[in-house]
Amino acid sequence: MMTQSDSGPLVLPYDADSGPLRFCPLSALGATLSVRILALVGSLRSGSHNRRLADVAVGLAPADVDLRVHQGLGELPFYNEDIDAEGLPLPAEVIRLRESAKEADGFLLFSPEYNGTMPAVLKNAIDWLSRPFGEGAMRDKPVAVVGIALGRFGGEWAQDEARKAAGIAGAAVLDGVKLSIPVSATRFAETHPADDAEVRAQLTEVVTSLRDKAAVAA
Predict the structure, then answer these.
(1) InterPro entries, per this entry (predicted)?
(2) Closest CA to 126 of 114, 113, 111, 148
(3) Please, where are the H alpha helices in the chain?
(4) What is the rounded average pLDDT of the residues 84-107?
């Protein structure tokens, strides 16, 4: 089901039981959507600032962008070639992630910083999407990486690691498109990222840049 905000763009929710709705044919949406962006959030915490930032991105997406946040990264098994072997049935969460990624024109990764690098859940998703080797769902598609972190550098180390991993996985990483938001515990102690004008403006620029690159690549 689609909803139309009085003050914002089209918002396409996910189903709480089955996860995100699949990208739909344009004719079924009743709107002209030309670019499909899949967001992956590297935090599993229910109150995650990065998850909130991803929700803000959905609300800020231009009318010609179908931006979805993939749910269920925490349910993915760790990448294992014994599981990902020809002729063997793949776990349902792997199939769902790969199908959503295959349909996407670009990716927006949201990464907190754990011990100076990206969380294992985000790296694991990239690993699954990098296979089959040379034919992964991220291959040649634009990827932007943003994030919120507790530290004063806003998780830049983690984001750099995510960009490196995505690039090796075959993605066309947008190295110049960045958003690092520091000292999250203080900045968002009483404020949602959606109410931060600076964050909204910067995130809008990120989504627009990714949209433009994805539209050219599609």
Answers:
(1) Flavoprotein-like_sf, FMN_Rdtase-like_dom, NAD(P)H-dep_reductase
(2) 111
(3) 26-29, 49-60, 92-103, 120-129, 156-168, 184-187, 197-217
(4) 96
**Where does the pLDDT of residue 196 fall: very low under 50, low under 70, confident under 90, or very high at 90 and above?**
confident
CB neighbour burial string for 38-70, b if at least 16 within 10 angstroms, e if fewer: bbbbbbeeeebbbbbbbbbbbbbbbeebbbbbb
Q: What is the pLDDT of residue 104?
A: 98
CB 203 within 8 A of CB 91: no
| 56 Cβ contact partners less than 8 Å away, ≥ 6 residues apart | 193, 194, 199, 200, 203
Pick from 76, 154, 141: nearest CA to 112: 154
Q: Are strands 172-181 and 3-4 parallel, antiparallel or unpaired?
A: unpaired
Residue with tokens 């990716």: 107
Cβ contact 183:151 at 8 Å: yes
| Distance in Å from the first CA to the final CA of the chain | 26
3-state SS of 43-79 is CCCCCCHHHHHHHHHHHHCCCCEEEEECCCHHHCCCC
Instruction: Give the HSE-up count for residue 32: Cα atoms under 13 Å, Cβ half-sphere.
Output: 0
Q: What is the DSSP letter of 147?
A: E
Amino acid at 15: D
pTM for the whole thing?
0.84
